[in-house]
Design goal:
The chain is an alpha+beta fold. The chain has helices at residues 24-28, 40-46, 64-77, 105-111, 154-157, 163-166, 172-179, 201-210, 216-238, 240-245, 249-264, 326-345, 352-369, 408-411, 470-480; strands at 83-86, 92-94, 97-98, 122-129, 134-144, 183-185, 267-268, 273-276, 297-302, 304-305, 314-319, 421-424, 427-430, 444-447, 450-454, 459-461. Strand 2 and strand 3 (97-98) form a beta hairpin.
Length: 482
């Protein structure tokens, strides 16, 4: 591959810069809507008369020392092996437009870089020693596309990296200061490494397992993400009156939260679930195109992803009119009891799976008492799971479902340690067409989800500031709605 040309792509249309036509036939059949200028005078004119930037970033990122420690721990697992961790490429959304860029989580973890300014970057960790006599340790280099200078044609002609198109990008020296990692132009990437390469499965798995226990920087980022998420929930509640009046009220709720996430963070950490009425019984309802009606419950499952790319994941089920009906409260209190049971066992030394088992014990007990769960000859059938088919917890971090590539025995059977962050999110879902469920429960879906940090002697509910108790939920909504 000719790496020097690997990031060159067809030009996008531009209505602010009029380029000279160089191919009338191409323009006529609409295959190229802009072309490079051929006039030397015009190119020289575009390359001169620009002030030097005054926003050069030369401060080391707060994550840099933590990322260095992570690279050191990864290095110890792969003595003598070259490690390649790409940031990932821009992905086309439609024709000649891209999705907003987000770097790969493994890359962000090992470099400390978040945000959206390093598409196609590659972190390479070269091993010490030789193939015959490997030595402990690696030397890291960050390969990036340098920003085009004012006198470079790419400055105005490259829609992927040109300043005219995407704004000013940090240079190699700035990235070196930000990350404490030596940098080099992408065209100097060692031979045999493909830009589209992915970390090997072994490296990806190792990083997933390293990410079980969060360092101090990660915990603070998750606190910030949760705090921003709680504010987003408050904003969504204030929009409920307008949501009721709108033909797609769920979208009103979604827009309120997602707009907040863009204002206060990088984006949402996953597609927001704003499910009203019977839609709340669909676990991953992201269409959000339904009405919000008086008397409904609204299940809002949402999380702000902060600039460092760490995300929260919180769910509350809210009465649209501000007060639970008796039957809604009955179901809600069982889900809350199940969640509290999960909290009670979330402490160092317990298994991750114990949290789920504690919550499900409550679900089974209450559904049996209600006469809903039918008797079974095989205890392993767990027929009560019909109304809660998902797990109670998942790890949380750079990805909303963090550490997903880790071995099952380290994830589900793993022992809880201080610094682990995960969700506790039991629920009950009675679908409208469920003829086994009592009629009064059909169409009710309730989930309560909090983000939990394991401490030295128990756990901390990071999202505790968002009310969970039904009375507290009603009082909170009343204050927000005046």
């Amino acid at each position: 591959m000719n790496l020097a040309r690997s990031w060159q792509v067809p030009l996008r249309p531009c209505h602010d810069i009029q380029m000279e036509d160089t191919d009338k036939a191409t323009q006529a059949n609409n295959k190229a809507r802009t072309t490079r200028p051929t006039s030397e005078e015009f190119k020289k004119f575009l390359g001169t008369g620009w002030a030097e930037p005054d926003d050069v970033r030369t401060t080391r990122a707060a994550a840099a020392p933590y990322a260095a420690d992570r690279r050191e721990r990864l290095s110890a697992l792969f003595t003598g092996k070259r490690l390649v961790i790409p940031a990932g490429e821009l992905k086309v959304r439609s024709n000649d437009t891209d999705y907003r860029y987000r770097p790969d989580s493994d890359f962000a973890y090992l470099t400390g870089l978040g945000a959206d300014h390093e598409p196609d970057a590659v972190l390479v960790m070269e091993p010490h020693g030789t193939a015959d006599t490997p030595q402990p340790g690696h030397d890291a280099t960050l390969y990036l596309i340098p920003p085009a200078g004012h006198d470079d044609e790419g400055f105005y002609a490259d829609p992927r990296s040109g300043e005219f198109w995407i704004g000013r990008r940090p240079g190699l020296a700035e990235f070196a200061v930000m990350t404490d990692i030596p940098t080099a132009p992408l065209k100097e990437l060692p031979g045999g490494i493909r830009l589209s390469a992915q970390p090997t499965k072994a490296v990806h798995k190792a990083l997933s397992e390293m990410r079980f226990v969060k360092d101090d920087y990660e915990v603070q980022q998750l606190r910030d993400a949760v705090d921003a998420t709680i504010e987003g929930f408050a904003r969504a509640v204030t929009q409920l009156p307008r949501a009721i009046e709108h033909k797609r009220g769920e979208r009103v709720v979604e827009a309120a939260f997602d707009g907040h996430a863009r204002e206060e963070g990088n984006a949402v950490g996953y597609e927001t679930i704003a499910a009203s009425g019977a839609h709340a019984t669909t676990l991953h309802w992201i269409s959000n195109d339904g009405q919000v009606r008086h008397g409904d419950l609204l299940l809002l499952d949402a999380g702000v992803e902060v600039e460092s790319l760490y995300t929260a994941d919180v769910t509350r089920t809210l009465p649209v009119d501000g007060q639970f009906s008796p039957v809604q409260r009955k179901v809600y209190e069982v889900v809350l009891e199940a969640a509290d049971a999960g909290f009670a066992v979330a402490r160092p030394g317990a298994r991750f799976l114990d949290v789920h088992m504690a919550a499900m014990e409550v679900i089974e007990k209450r559904l049996t008492e209600w006469g809903i769960a039918p008797p079974s000859e095989d205890p392993e059938s767990k027929l009560y799971r019909r109304w809660m088919v998902h797990g109670t917890s998942h790890h949380l971090g750079l990805d909303v479902h963090d550490c997903a590539a880790a071995k099952r025995e380290l994830y589900m059977e793993g022992v809880l340690e201080p610094g682990m962050v995960f969700t506790i999110e039991p629920g009950l879902y009675f679908k409208s067409d469920d003829l086994i469920a009592p009629e009064e429960l059909r169409g009710i879906g309730i989930r309560i989800e909090d983000d939990v940090l394991v401490t030295e002697d128990g756990c901390e509910n990071l999202s505790a500031a968002l009310p969970r108790d039904p009375d507290a939920v009603e009082a909170w909504m009343a204050r927000l709605r005046g």
